[in-house]
Design brief:
CATH topology: HIV Type 1 Reverse Transcriptase, Chain A, domain 1
Distance between the termini: 18 Å
Radius of gyration: 17 Å
Structural class: alpha+beta
CATH superfamily: HIV Type 1 Reverse Transcriptase, subunit A, domain 1
InterPro entries: DNA/RNA_pol_sf, Rev_trsase/Diguanyl_cyclase, RNA-dir_DNA_polymerase, RT_dom
Helix content: 10-25%
Number of helices: 3
Pfam families: RVT_1
Order of helices and strands: EEEHHEEH
Organism: Phytophthora fragariae
Number of strands: 5
Protein name: Reverse transcriptase domain-containing protein
Mean pLDDT: 85
Strand order of the largest sheet: 1-5-4-2-3
Number of domains: 1
Strand content: 15-25%
Low-confidence stretches: 105-110
CATH class: Alpha Beta
Length: 110
Amino acid sequence: MVRESKSPHSSPTFCVCKPNGKWRMVHAFNKLNAATIPASTPIPRKDVLQINMAGCIIFSALDMVDGYYQLLMRESDIPLTAVSTPRGMLWEWLVMPQGLSNAPPHSIGS
């Protein structure tokens, strides 16, 4: 999921305790997201989906609750996902982490 990085880019990462006592990893991709051009991928209309599915006999649904950690990052984008830990370690994501501004449209479209 991650590998050590020598990227010139770095976003802070840390853990916070959720109300239920479990821990959540947080990545502060604010600067990366500010420099990202928003995806213009519209959500398909229901009638268009129904027309496209006419005649199909096999249907599938993907559970994308954990989709972020299942989609491989494009090799050229991996250095942009570098995160630094409070202990000064630098890692980069090989799979899509949560917190990227274009992640939901990419997840839905892949």
